[in-house]
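#dry-run=false #mode=assembly
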Amino acid sequence: MTRRMLWFALLTWGMVLFGPTDGRSAGPPPVGGKLPDFTLGVPKDAAEKTYLGLSGSGAFKIPQIRAKTVVIEIFSMYCPYCQKEAPNVNQVYGKIEADPTLRGKIKLIGIGVGNAAFEVGVFKKKYNVPFPLFPDGDFVLHKLLGEVRTPYFIGVKNRPDGSHQVIHSRLGAFESVEKFLDEIVKTSDLN
Amino acid sequence: MKTRIRSIFLAFLGAALLGLAASPAAFALSDAYKDNIYNTGRLKPTDSALKVKAGGKAPDFTLKAVSGERVSLGDFRGKKNVVISFVPAAWTPVCSDQWPGYNIVKEMFDANDAILLGITVDNIPTLFSWTNQMGKLWFPVLSDFWPHGAVAKKFGVLRSDGMAERALFVIDKQGIIRYIDVHDINRRPPLEVLIGELEKLKRGK
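#status=ok
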């Protein structure tokens, strides 16, 4: 019995020293792969809820967003490049909403890693971000998404059967708004 | 014998569980810094003894800013509330992820008649290179390099390894310390709490 207890203690130590117990993942979601399993809170704001095609309250998963493709920006209010890139990401949103062939088919969301709701709110107000932003105050999603540097963009294609596939996974600012959007549209195969 | 083994078991298990509970340093890195941030790993949360207290007078100091000017705490007496943000070191993870956030909330400081002074114990050339990655900062960044960490020492936030703590001091227009947060060095202090303290000061509480 005592020997078993000793082994248990040693095993726990092993988990601390070598195991994946610190929650760090292997890397960002690869193109062709799937997102890690996580949920976000349904926004309280009615316009954001409508944009995402969600109802009620509670949690939702990315494939539940009413869109053929969802672009996720991993950002932080504290990240200089995210601040600089904010107007460009807003432009992507504007171009999608202004184009009847894209509107409703490609949706944008942001996840503020290490940002509390207050900090995400500051970023949204400062840069007039027109799409929903979600806080990840304790870096839980950041760890699941491979602890990427910011900004990081992930494109996810939602299939009618409820499954999904990562079609874009890239670090850093856009080369150009048009090029980024073209690439998302091409890989989305919207027709 | 059994009691002894049980004690060893409990000691091991306790230490292991503490290790599990102590999460690694929490930070995200901006691509602005590329691969130039040195990961310090998890550090002892705090490692100094405060020499000042809320309600007491803040010790005056004069330090050189990256811009070349000399800034004294006394410059703001009767004019502005002052937030002093000590951060441990340039080119380290959480520090690089703190001032750029303050840089986009100047309006919140203005609305509460407050100025921000950023201080580290790094020298001016290092601070120049580091803060250049953050974009143009609206607040002075001061070097407490020589005599090394003298101002941090006055406040009681100089760690035993020569770095400063990650500490916030809110000082009112009369030079009285109204709020102190010597934060866990591995984590960024929440902005909401700091702004809340400034708002309290504005409301005269």
